[in-house]
Amino acid sequence: MRAVHSLSDMAKRVNRPVECLSGLQQRFKLPVYEGAGYSDAYLLFLRTLVLLGRFGIAEERLLQIWHLEKTLLVLLHVDTAGSPTWFLDSCGLITHREQRLLLSNFDLGVTVPSRSFQMGLNFAQESSDPISRTDMGEDALRVLNDYIPLVSGIRADLVAELPILKEAIQWAGRLKLSPPAPEQINS
């Protein structure tokens, strides 16, 4: 059974105010639900955005990557399941990490970046029109070629930040930090 979350639950899980997550929903054009209508995958997508923001990755870059990923997924007909969150449903899957897109976590079936990408790749039922499949493959390849340098830049930024992050964690550990007592939270 999959867990469902409310917006306030997700805000607590990613240590951000509800208003912050609402803003991400608007800017990334994500579906909004009442009550506990958010899947684990939805939570993990928001968590990814928050974590990348903690590393100093600008939201503008993430929005650019998100637009390219969604375009690629549409070109590959990944949206055939009928889910309103079809573009998030792979978030949280951990197999074949090197084949997955950065934000949607969709598995392309090839290492990203790759020197090969099957033209006409289509995750939906086969089309009877070979011309449209070829055009789709060329468009998908063009989008992937726009996507790869952006993600490579983010990966390089993350690698550069890791030593600083490790040092910050060690430094914070020396402060002997402890969580606030429950009475401090409620006051």
Give your account of this protein's structure.
With 187 residues, the chain is mostly helical. The chain has one domain (4-176). It is built from six helices and two strands. The protein has helices at residues 7-13, 18-27, 40-54, 59-75, 130-174, 182-186, and strands spanning 4-5, 38-39. Strands 1-2 form a two-stranded antiparallel sheet. The longest helix has 45 residues, at 130-174. It is globular and about 55 Å long. Residues 117-136 have low confidence and may be disordered.
Kindly report the spatial arrangement of strands forming the biggest sheet.
1-2
The SS-based structural class is: mainly alpha
Strand composition percent: under 5%
Tally of contiguous helical segments: 6
- Point out poorly predicted stretches: 117-136
Shape assignment: globular
Mean of residue pLDDT values = 84
Helix content: 40-55%
Domain tally: 1
The number of E-state strands comes to 2
Distance between the termini: 36 Å
Biggest β-sheet description: 2 strands, antiparallel
Please give the radius of gyration in angstroms. 19 Å
Following the backbone from N to C, one meets helices and strands in this order, namely EHHEHHHH
Describe the SSE topology.
Layout: E1 4-5, H1 7-13, H2 18-27, E2 38-39, H3 40-54, H4 59-75, H5 130-174, H6 182-186
Antiparallel strand pairs: 1-2
